[in-house]
Design goal:
By secondary structure, this protein is an alpha/beta fold. The chain is built from eleven helices and six strands. The chain has two domains: 149 residues, Glucose-regulated metallo-peptidase M90, N-terminal domain (Cyclin A, domain 1), CATH 1.10.472.150; 94 residues, 3-Layer(aba) Sandwich (Collagenase (Catalytic Domain)), CATH 3.40.390. Bound molecules: zinc ion. The site of zinc ion (ZN) has 4 residues, from helix 6 and helix 8.
């Protein structure tokens, strides 16, 4: 990093620092962050500050956003990229937040070219080169130790889309094996579909079976929120995500439980 860039970052971190009380209020109560070391928390705070500076938070339909909401969303986002860097989230600006679940209308053409109009109610969505859109009611619920996490889900889609297509195959880091990733993820995806067919509870949200992209987004949620569950049910998937996110949330949780 050149000197000018470093100076700019230092300026932003100083000028736009997150209020200490607000930071503690969020970080101390977010179970996702349990077990982070003081150094990791400091790094997370810097990334969160830079993310808040770079992105434009917009309350939809007159919804008034507070600093608690902005920081709450930003900190969960930055946990995902804590070890892979903020540059993974460049190329888009807007974070649009609705008060609650929001309705979208889409026209889709089927195989024979007939266009179908569909209405969906969503808690979040991610546009490949556009904003992420979130329901605050869902984000807030997820912050109270929920089995799911809409922010992580949408950020996983953003990371997935970095190589041009959202297909459950994000650009892998140097040293990671493409064939191993593909084999592990495909096998687990097929196993999930198989278990749903036979009504066997795999422990994963059935929504993961919708497509490989949704599978990646859902296992990313479980990786951060319930790492032990993912590791016991899909250990190879856990290992691939550990390599991808360069984090080990299961080890973190163990460390946190030893401190209690
Ligand atoms: Zn999704």
């Amino acid at each position: 990093m050149n000197i000018l860039k470093r100076a700019r970052i230092r300026y932003i971190l100083h000028r736009h620092a997150i209020a200490h009380g607000l930071w503690l209020e969020i970080v101390d109560h977010l179970s996702l962050l349990q077990g982070l070391t003081a150094v990791e928390k400091a790094h997370l705070r810097e990334l969160t500050t830079l993310f808040l500076y770079e992105k434009n938070f917009i309350g939809a339909q007159g919804f008034q956003l507070t600093d608690y909401m902005r920081v709450g969303i930003a900190v969960q986002t930055c946990l995902c990229i804590l070890e892979i860097g903020l540059s993974c989230l460049s190329g888009w600006t807007d974070v649009i937040v609705y008060r609650g679940p929001f309705r979208v209308s889409r026209d889709t053409a089927d195989a024979v070219g007939v266009v179908h109009h569909q209405d969906h109610v969503l808690s979040g969505e991610s546009w490949s080169r556009g904003p992420i859109v979130l329901s605050w009611a869902d984000v807030e619920q997820d912050m109270q130790q929920s089995p799911r996490n809409v922010v992580i889900h949408e950020i996983a889609h953003k990371l997935d889309a970095l190589n041009g297509t959202t297909n459950g195959y994000p650009p892998l880091h140097y040293g990671m094996s493409v064939s191993e990733w593909t084999e592990v993820m495909s096998q687990a995806y097929e196993a999930l579909n198989h278990s749903l067919e036979y009504q066997y509870n795999s422990g994963l949200d059935p929504y993961a079976a919708h497509s490989p992209a949704e599978f990646f987004a859902v296992v990313s949620e479980v990786f951060f929120c319930h790492p032990e569950r993912l590791d016991s049910q899909f250990p190879e998937v856990y290992r691939q995500l550990q390599l991808y996110y360069r984090q080990d949330p299961k080890r973190r949780l163990h460390a946190a439980s030893r401190m209690i």
